[in-house]
Amino acid sequence: MFYDVRISIGMLFALIGTILAAFGLATHDQATVYARSAGIDANLWWGLVLLAFGVVVMSLGRRGQMKLEKEASRKNGSKG
Amino acid sequence: MPSLAAADWLILLIYCFFLLTAGFSLRPVMTASRQYLQAGRALPGWLCGMAMVGASLGSETVLGMGAAGARYGIASVGFFALGSIPALLFSGLYLMPVYYGSQSGPRTIPEYLGLRFDGKTRILSAILFLGMASFCAGIALYGMARVFQALHVFDQVSNRLNLPPTVFLLLAIAVPAALVLTYVLLGGLGAAMYNQALTFCVVVAGLAPVALLGLKRTGGWSGLKTDVPASFLHEWSGATHAGAHSMGLDATALVFVGLVVGGGMWCTDFRLLQTAMAAKNVESARKAALITAAVWVFVPLLAILSGLIAVGMPTPHTTVVVHNENGAIYHEITVVPPAVEAGQGLVPAKIDAATGKPVTGADGHAMLDYEMATPNALSQFLPMGLLGLGIAMLLGCLSSGVAASAAAFSTVFTCDIYETVVAKNPDDKRLLVVARWAAAGGMLLAVSAAYLTMQFGSPLEATMLVFAVVNVPLFAVLFRGALWKRTTGHGAFAGLIAGVVAALLMHGTMLPLNEQRGIHGGWIAVMGRPSNELRFGLGIAGIAFLISLIAISIVSMRTKPRSDDELNGLVRSLAELPPANAIWWKRPEALAIAILLAAMVVNLIFI
């Protein structure tokens, strides 16, 4: 059975978002790291955005996966 | 130049891990050739749409959009919209029901041509397609390897391992190719599509901060206005005068050629269409094309904007700062390579491999390497950490384009060459084995094409030529075949050959200004000099389409057409459409009009 791809998309973004945000927090007061991004702690902010996106997509994916499994068991039930 | 830090590596490796995961988790599902080649024809429309967007955002497209932004400014938004939205809407509304057919409908575009016309058209188009797919994948692999080398992000690794530049290039071709091949071999089209959907999200997540931080660095939109020529920020200024427009094409020709090139891509190219044909029903297949159109209204903006900002940044120069501290005089020298200094903004000049000096064109200005606009913007604007996401985005574009080629190569070879020429009615287990070997063979061809490209300089422009030679005549055949039932098999075959020959002849007899004879054109004799490469490529596409249409019409009128019964479901007027949805705003037509309006609004903002 094909799984719902939103689960893996959500997991990837939640993971990357967490790493970026944590790295952003750790390097928050190092000006040299953020010279390229005009002094903005882009890791922290963009990491939080990606984390939020990942969590939303993952919850959508879990709902979709439950629907898929219900459909699959119904199909099996009608066959057997 | 920045090197990758530990945080960057972590993000890049996690991304690669997820790419492979899709392959491993779909492997148990791959029990039959239908699962492997068509993802079971069971995927929902939104996933097919996302995968189609991912497949279309191959590395050449994303780098090409940045290059167009740096070269022609905002005008290129209009060009990409013209080349995608109308063709996608046409494909979604009218072609998908014909291509998708019923549940046992055609599996590939050549198979559709076989059902609609005859076996010879099917095999010829399959061979042309196989050649094009492996060649384009090879060019993409080489192009991205060159970008990775020019960005110097992997220098730490290559210095530690003491790799000479050629070995580094070869590795940069082979490692992504092996990554893609692994998940395509394991999970087939399904894995390719799951990763394309994933990559689409990564492309947006990687490009958005580049555009945002770039705008911040140039001082917002008003800052950008002072950095680039005014004509770069206005889309339609002078579009009505031939030559005045920054692309050097007049409006009528631009619209015609845009539609032909768009049709050649979105209505013809099986690498993109395979994603929609894997949908669970006709409605989902149509929805996939429409979703792609909706996304394409906005995505080119991001990529073009980052290229535009790159060219607007101040050009780095070698500087010597002298300062006096407690009586001791320090000289602080920042050395900038000649290619960067001769460039404009973050776009470097092209370097002559023999002399090591920047190449200058006939007008005395250095010729710029526009493909580097987006990668350089990425490495200049993204801080450590986000840079890893940016590199993952570049790798993702490359892998989704190459995976589309590998999966399509495998399907077309198995369905249209193996089943028709080698073994009629083979058993399904055998087909599955053949499909996997075909994917591996296609990837091997692509890597050899990449190696050849590396040996003969950089014919990245050849992509446009291959496209004009293969896809445009094929589009003419599909366009006539799907809409007019009078078109005959002999007509289609003649049209295909005439279009290919016409494109090759035109390429052989004309040469753009400032170019050497050979891969750029004029390999027979030089009879005409178009003003630039883009214009030349588009001209070839337009002529090939017209010649092809004329040949199809003439031969079709002189040969006997097939009866309506034989063509049932294969021509638009004889296709069964699902009953229209009772709610008017849920019908595909309403969605198409909404997308068209949105595209117009986006393009009219920049008048």
Please give a structural write-up:
The complex is a heterodimer of chains A (80) and B (607). Chain A has two helices and no strands. Chain A has 80 residues and is mostly helical. Chain A has one domain (5-79). Chain B folds into two domains: 6-315 and 371-455 and 579-604, Sodium/glucose cotransporter; 461-576, no CATH class. Chain B is built from 21 helices and two strands. Chain B has helices at residues 6-26, 33-38, 45-56, 59-72, 75-100, 109-116, 119-151, 155-160, 165-218, 220-227, 251-266, 270-277, 282-312, 338-341, 373-381, 386-422, 428-455, 462-483, 489-509, 533-558, 588-604, and strands spanning 319-325, 328-334. Residues 238-246 of chain B have low confidence and may be disordered.
Question: Short description, anyone?
Answer:
Chain A has 80 residues and is mainly alpha-helical. Chain A has helices at residues 5-26, 42-79.
The chain-level structural class of chain A is: mainly alpha
The value of Rg of chain B in angstroms is 24 Å
Share of helical residues of chain A: over 70%
Q: Sketch the major β-sheet of chain A.
A: none
What's the arrangement of strands in the largest beta sheet of chain B? Answer: 1-2
Distance between the termini of chain B: 37 Å
First-residue to last-residue Cα separation of chain A? 18 Å
Low-confidence stretches of chain A: none
Sheet-strand content of chain A, in percent, reads under 5%
Give the helices and strands of chain B as they follow along the chain. Answer: HHHHHHHHHHHHHEEHHHHHHHH
CATH topological fold name of the largest domain in chain B: Sodium/glucose cotransporter
Radius of gyration of chain A (Å): 19 Å
Average the pLDDT over all residues of chain A and give the rounded result: 85
Question: So what's the oligomer here?
Answer: heterodimer
Report the total helices of chain A. Answer: 2
The helix content of chain B is 55-70%
Dominant shape of chain A: rod-shaped
